[in-house]
Design a protein that fits this description.
Layout: E1 2-5, E2 14-17, E3 24-26, E4 38-39, E5 46-53, E6 62-69, E7 72-80, E8 86-91, E9 98-103, E10 112-115, E11 118-121, E12 127-128, E13 137-143, E14 152-157, E15 162-166, E16 178-181, E17 189-191, E18 200-203, E19 210-212, E20 224-225, E21 232-236, E22 245-248, E23 251-255, E24 261-263, E25 276-280, E26 289-294, E27 304-308, E28 327-329, E29 337-341, E30 347-353, E31 358-364, E32 368-372, E33 379-387, E34 393-399
Antiparallel strand pairs: 1-2, 2-3, 3-4, 5-6, 6-7, 7-8, 9-10, 10-11, 11-12, 13-14, 14-15, 15-16, 17-18, 18-19, 19-20, 21-22, 22-23, 23-24, 25-26, 26-27, 28-29, 29-32, 30-31, 30-33, 33-34
């Protein structure tokens, strides 16, 4: 498995992989130049699904993952000291594997997990609760499937070719499983693809991936083949037009905003043979770069990865790091208060994650304004500042 995350809290994305055995990290210098792989946890712990997120509320990214210690599956929690050094903090379950899904199921402001079912965080990275509904899955995601304001679960079955959903009752308890056909996968790709505000699913097919469109009620229309080929690897806005594009093992497919995809010409052999992928801004230029990886496939063939930097002329890629007359403070942002001073004239402010997802935007009409940002996870964000008759500018900010 492959994740991009700021492990050492220095404002850039590092590469973390869990193959062929121990979890390892390649640290980024901020310009997309990486160190050699080094163990992130104890080297002899085999890691499968994992997430890197702040479970104890101290502003750095911790490790939650499915480990196999002495052939026993366990959902382990390791806490980060803020400098990329991790110490164990307990086990969620010894019976089931962690499915990769984290989110605030019970609305108490911290991140809960799926590990054989719902496991609830006490705010300090300690997880509790015997799940009323068992969720045995290869991979899962927590998203609002039925548009009722809480997080539901969507999973790929661990025992067969099917997906299933578990809807949240509003208190954090997940209801019974509702099954639907779908090819199994460890890497669930869930995002609104047709612009209706509901989370859709890209599922792998034998030759072509398929699309399951969300009805808005937590159910999905029958899958239709996407005009794309190869194993789906990642979703993200690679061309800066506000919708999610698709990366497969055969190339990059741009979304027209209505879940209609068109392939970009790909250099060389595209991404053939890769089974994992992740998008993120590796070189701090405001657009999404791509890391793809392949695991060990046969004796003598080792695991490895490739990095491809985004060189397309998109709205994010052409945004300058700074501009005359624009000031943003404080940075880091504390308590959600942000001041933006810029040339007079109508404009627009848009705040994106390092993965390109818009989390806040506002029209801007005055020369200097104070803004109250919504609650945001700690980390690196990109503030895009659009002003009439001037190029879009980009400012990196850190939210604490």
């Amino acid at each position: 498995f492959l994740r991009l995350a700021d492990i050492d809290n220095d404002g850039d994305l590092d590469i973390v992989t869990s193959f062929p055995s121990a979890l390892s990290v390649q640290r980024n210098n901020g310009a997309g130049i990486f160190t050699a792989p080094a163990p992130l946890l104890v080297p002899n712990i085999y890691v499968e699904q994992f997430a890197l997120t702040d479970v104890d509320g101290d502003g750095d990214l911790d490790f939650v993952g499915s480990t196999l210690l002495q052939n026993t599956p366990a959902g382990d929690v390791w806490l980060n000291n803020g400098q990329g050094v991790f110490t164990p903090n307990g086990v969620m379950s010894h019976q089931y594997k962690f499915t990769g899904a984290m989110g605030d199921l019970d609305g108490d402001g911290d991140l809960d997990a799926l590990n054989g079912g719902a496991r609830y965080n006490d705010g300090h990275g300690n997880f509790y609760g015997a799940a009323a509904t068992t969720i045995d899955a290869r991979g899962s995601a927590l998203v609002d499937l039925d548009n009722d304001g809480d997080l539901d679960a969507i999973s790929s079955s661990g025992t067969g070719n099917a997906y299933f959903t578990n809807l949240n009752d509003g208190t954090g308890a997940l209801g019974p499983s509702t099954f639907m056909p779908g090819n199994y996968t460890d890497n669930l790709l869930v995002r609104d693809l047709n612009g209706d505000g509901y989370a859709d699913i890209v599922t792998p097919g034998y030759y072509q991936p398929s699309l399951l469109l969300n009805t808005g009620q937590g159910t999905f229309a029958a899958g239709t083949a996407i005009a794309a080929y190869g194993l789906p690897l990642a979703l993200g806005d690679v061309d800066g037009d506000g919708d999610a594009d698709l990366i497969t093992a055969q190339g990059c497919y741009l979304n027209n905003g209505q879940a209609v995809f068109q392939q970009l010409p790909s250099p060389g052999a595209a991404y053939a043979g890769n089974v994992f992928g992740a998008l993120g801004d590796l070189d701090s230029d405001g657009d999404l770069d791509l890391v793809t990886a392949f695991s060990m496939t046969s004796p003598g063939v080792s695991a490895g990865w490739n990095i491809r930097f985004n060189r397309n002329q998109t709205s994010l890629a052409t945004a300058a790091p700074t501009a005359t007359g624009i000031q943003v403070w404080p940075n880091p942002v504390v308590n959600g208060r942000l001041h933006v001073s810029r040339p007079a004239g109508a404009g627009n402010l848009r705040l994106c994650t390092a993965l390109g997802q818009t989390v806040w935007q506002q029209p801007a009409g005055d020369k200097a304004e104070d803004w109250q940002l919504p609650p945001l996870a700690s980390g690196l964000y990109l503030l895009l500042i659009q002003t009439a008759d001037q190029p879009t500018t980009m400012q990196r900010i850190v939210v604490e």
